[in-house]
Amino acid sequence: MGLFLLLIMIVVPIIEIGVFIQVGGWLGLWPTLSVVILTAMLGTGLLRYQGFTTLVRAQQSLAEGRFPVAEVFDGLCLVIAGALLLTPGFVTDTFGLLLFVPQVRVFLRQTVGRQFLKSGRVKMWSDGPGADGRQGGGQGGGQGGGQGGAPVIEGDFEEVDPASGKPENRDGNPWQRGDS
After folding, report:
1. For residues 41 and 116, which has the higher predicted lDDT (pLDDT)?
2. CA distance linking residue 52 with residue 99, whole number of Å
3. pLDDT-derived band of residue 141, with 50, 70 and 90 as boundaries?
4. Is residue 154 within 8 Å of residue 177, measured between CB atoms?
5. How far is the C-alpha of 92 from the C-alpha of 81, rounded, in Å?
6. Which residues pair with 129 in a beta bridge?
7. Half-sphere exposure of 34 (CA within 13 A, CB side)
8. 82, exposed or middle or buried, with CB in 10 Å at 0-12, 13-18, 19+?
9. What angle do CA 9, 13, 14 make, to 5 degrees?
C-alpha cells in the first residue's frame, strides 16, 4: 500500500504538469488558470449541496433505525471529490467531478462492498427488508428475526432467586450459564 501511495504521489503530479502544458498551450495562461479556479468554486458548491443532502439522508436512516452505510460511503466519496477538485489540475478535477455523480458512487459502493464481502473481513446481515425490498435481504450468516421481524438480541443471563436477590446455584455449578 505504501508503494502504491508513493507511486501516486509521483505519477499524478507528472501527469498533471503534462496536461497543464498541453491545455495552457492550447488555451493560454489566463484561461487555463480561470478554468482551474472555476472548477474549485464549482466543487465547493457541489460539495455543500450534496453534502447537506447526504447528511439529511443519513439522519433519516438513523431515525428509521438503520445504519446509514450508503450515506457514510457517499459522504466519504464527497470528501474525496472535494479534495480532488480543490487540488489544482485537470485530471484530479475530472475524477473529483465523477465522484459527484450519484450513479458513479452507487457503482463504486457496490464494487467496494462486494470486495469487502469476498475478502471475509466484513460480514453483513439484516433482519429487515433488504435493498431489493424482500425480507431478510442481507448477506452473510446472521441470525434471523424473531416473530414479526423483531430484532434478536443475543446474550447470557442468570436466573436470580426472587426471595434472596442472589443468583440461583444450578446443580452445584456456579459457572453454569442460565440459558442451557
Report:
1. 41
2. 16
3. very low
4. no
5. 9
6. 135
7. 5
8. buried
9. 115
C-alpha cell at 168: 440461583
Three cell numbers, residue 58: 443519513
174: pLDDT strictly greater than 80: no
**Per-residue pLDDT tens digits for 36-81:** 888 888 888 888 999 899 999 999 989 988 888 889 999 999 999 9
What is the crossing angle of helices 69-86 and 102-119, to 10°? 120
Q: Are 140 and 125 in contact (CB under 8 A)?
A: yes
Encode burial over 157-178: b for 16+ CB neighbours within 10 A, e otherwise: eeeeeeeeeeeeeeeeeeeeee
**What ranges do the domains of the chain cover?**
15-121
Report whether pLDDT(143) > 50: no
